[in-house]
TrEMBL record, chain A:
Pfam families: BPD_transp_1. The chain crosses the membrane at residues 53-74, 86-111, 117-144, 165-191, 211-230. It is found in: Cell membrane; Membrane. Keywords: Membrane, Transmembrane, Transmembrane helix, Transport. It comes from Marinobacter salexigens. It comes from the Bacteria. This is ABC transporter permease. Residues 49-230 form the ABC transmembrane type-1 domain. It is a multi-pass membrane protein. Belongs to the binding-protein-dependent transport system permease family.
UniProtKB/TrEMBL annotation, chain B:
It is a multi-pass membrane protein. Pfam families: BPD_transp_1. CDD domains: TM_PBP2. Residues 181-376 form the ABC transmembrane type-1 domain. Belongs to the binding-protein-dependent transport system permease family. Its main location: membrane. The chain crosses the membrane at residues 12-30, 50-68, 75-98, 110-128, 140-161, 181-204, 216-246, 252-272, 327-351, 357-379. This is ABC transporter permease. The keyword Zinc-finger does not apply.
Amino acid sequence: MRLWLTPVIWIASLCALTALLPAMAPLFSWVEGGTDNLIYTRDSFYTLLQSHIWLVLASATMGTLVAVSAGIFVTRPAGRDFMPLVSQIASIGQTVPPVAVLALAVPAMGFGEKPTLFALVLYGLLPILRNTLAGLGGINPAVLDSAKGMGMSSVQVLFKVELPLAGRVILAGIRTSVTINIATAAIGSTIGARTLGDPVIAGLVNGNTAYVLQGAILIGFLALATDSLFEALERAWARVFSARAHKA
Amino acid sequence: MPSSTGLPNRVIPVLALAAFVLVWLLNLGVVQPNRIVAGTGYGLFDATGWFGAGTVSSLLLVVVVLATKPIRNRFWVLSFLLTAALMSLPLLLEVFALRKLPADSAYARIGIGAGFWCLAFFLALMLLETLSQLKASRRVQLSVVLLVAAGWWLCAAREGLSSLSLIREYANRADQFSQALTVHLSLSLGAVAISAVLAFGLALAMVRRERLRRPLLGLVSFMQTIPSLALFGLLIAPLGALSAAFPALQALGIRGIGWAPALLALIAYSLLPMVRNTYVALMEVPEAVVDAGRGMGMSERQVFLQVKLPVALPVIIEGVRITTIQAIGLTAVAALIGAGGFGTFIFQGLGQAAMDLVLLGALPTVCLALAADAILSALKFQETPR
C-alpha cells in the first residue's frame, strides 16, 4: 500500500508537531526574544486542531450532500428546467471571495462557530456542485443508452453507472472545496470560531511572532496532509474503478 | 426566438414564491439608536405599510403570471419589470426610513435587514433566469447590470437614505474608503502583473524543457495548497529579520508586516493558475496551424508572435481572470497583516461589532471581484478566434 504512505507520513508529522510544539520554546525564543510568552497557551494546539478539523469535516459533509443531490436533481428530467440557473449560480458564486462570505455571515447570524460553519457550507458547495454537473454532464450518452438497454431502471443507472463514472470529478470538486475551507476556517478565528487561526490572530494583535508561526505551521501542515490524503483517495478511486471496468 | 417561449416557466414561480415567503417572514430593516446597538427589526408590513407591502407582493404575483401564461414577448416584459424593480429597490428602505426613523435622535440610523437582501437576491436570480431564457447577448447583460448599479447609486445619493447606517459609515470614512480602494487595487493588480511576467517566463521554460514541467508545476501547486493566513504568517519572521539586518530595505518600507509580505504571498498564490493556463495554452496550439505559419515562410520568432500567441491568448486571459479574482479576495485577508485595502474595514468592523462597517468592506470587495470577472470574461470572449 505505497499509495497511502505519503498521507500517513504527513498526518503523523502533523500529530507529532501538535504534541511537540509546546516543548519547542527554546526554538521560538530565537524568533521572539523579548518575552516569556513563547508558546500559545489559551487553548491547547490539540483542541484547536480538533475543532478546525471538525468545522471542515462537517462543512464538507453537508456541502457534498447538498451539492451532489442538487446536481443529481437538475440532471433528471424533473429538474432539468433548473439546470441553467443552477450552473450559473455555481460559476458566479465562485467569483465572490470566501472572506467576504465569511464576513457577510456575521451580520446575518452573529459571532461564533455557527456563522463560520454556515459560510463554509455555502461557499464549499459551489466547487462540488460545479464538478458534479461537469461529471454527470460529461458521460457519453451512448453509455447511458446501453445501460438502459440492458434493462436497468433509472435509479440503477444513476447509482451503478452515472455516479461511479462521475465520481472522480466529484472527488476533485470536494478536494478543491476542502482546500478552500481549511483556509477559510482559519480566518474564521476573526469571527469567533475556535480554529488554528487563533494563535495567528492573537500573535498579530499582540505583535508576538512566535504565536503567529505556531499557528501558521500547524495550518500549513493540516492543509498539506489533507491534500496528500485526497491525492491518494483519487488514485485509489481510479484504481478500483479501472479494475472493475477490466473485469466487466 | 427561444424554443421554450410558449411553455410555462417553472423556475421563476419557485423563485418568486421563495422571495415572497422570505420577504414576509424576515425583517426588512432595523432601526438602531446608534452604530453598535443591535436595534429593533421591522417586517415588510410594519416597515413600509400597505403601500410597500402591496407593491412588493403584487410585483411577485405579476411575475408569476407572466412566467406561466403564454403571452407574447413575456420574457422581454419580465426582464424590463425585474430590472426596474431591482433598480428602485432601495426606495423601499427610503419609505422605511421616512416612517420609522425617530426624528429627534441625531445618532439613530436604519440598517438593512435580511428580508431586503433576500428580496434583492431572488429578484436577481429571476432576472438571470429571464435573461438566459432570452439568450441575451453580452451587451444586453452588461447594460442590465449597469442600469441596476446606476439605480442603486442614484438612490444612495438621495437625501432620504442619508440615515442608512451603511451610508453613514461611508460618509465618516470617505477619504479612507478611496485610499482603501487604491491600496486594494494596486496590491492585487500589482501581484497579478508581476506574476503574469514570471509565469510567462516559467511557462516558456517548461515548453522548451519538458524536464522542468513536473518540478515547476509541483512547486507552484504546493504554494497554492498552503492557506493564506498561514503563508502571510510564515512570511512575517523572514521579512522582519531581513528588514532588521538591512536598513536600506527598511527605508523602502519592507517590514515583517505591511505591503511587502502581502505582495509576496499574493504573487506566490497567483503563479499556479497563471503558469498552468499559459503552459496549457501554448502547448495546445494545433500543430497544423503552426505548420501553416512555417509554410508561409515565417521565422520561429514570427510563428511564436503572430501565430502561437494569438491562438493561445484566450486561455491565457482565462488564467489572468482566475488569478485576478483570487488576488482581490486574498488582498482582503492581507489586511490582517496590516497591508490595508477593504479588508481593513471588514476586520475593524468585526472587532468593534459594527456590522455596517463590515459591509462597507465586504460589499466593495465582492463588487471588485465581480467587475474583474465581467471585464476579463468580455476580453476573453473578444479575443477568441471565430
